[in-house]
Amino acid sequence: MASNFRMFLHQNSDSLHVKLSGDFDGSSAHELIHTIKNHNGNPKNIYIHTSGLSCVYPFGLDVFKKNWNTDNITHSLTFTGVFGIKLAPEGSHII
To answer: What does the mean pLDDT of the chain come to?
Structure first.
């Protein structure tokens, strides 16, 4: 994982907010996937905030896209920030 990558989690009754910070590489991608899968179904809305990212490495993006196989929760994901459009799997929301 990139030495400066961090995830900050905040959950309320029906939403989980995941704020990403630092550089997004392959290990960061696995950590994000793991975090999302651990909250599958509870809460029903997951927001991934990308404005704190400095860089999304092509390898990190590739790892995330190739290993994202949780289509049953893709519709509950919303990506925000400048890197949201790059990271968002098909079927998720981008704001």
So the answer is: 91
Contact 78, 47 (CB under 8 A): yes
What's the N-to-C CA distance of the chain in angstroms? 26
Is the pTM here over 0.85, yes or no? yes
Other CB atoms within 10 Å distance of the CB of residue 6: 13
Distance, CA of 93 to CA of 5 (rounded, Å): 23
Instruction: Look up the CATH architecture of domain 6-94.
Output: 2-Layer Sandwich (3.30)
Sheet containing strand 45-56, strands side by side: 6-11, 15-24, 45-56, 77-80, 93-94
Alpha-carbon distance of 68 to 8, in angstroms, equals: 20
Are the C-beta atoms of residues 7 and 32 closer than 8 Å to each other?
yes
CA dist 37 and 51 (Å) reads 22
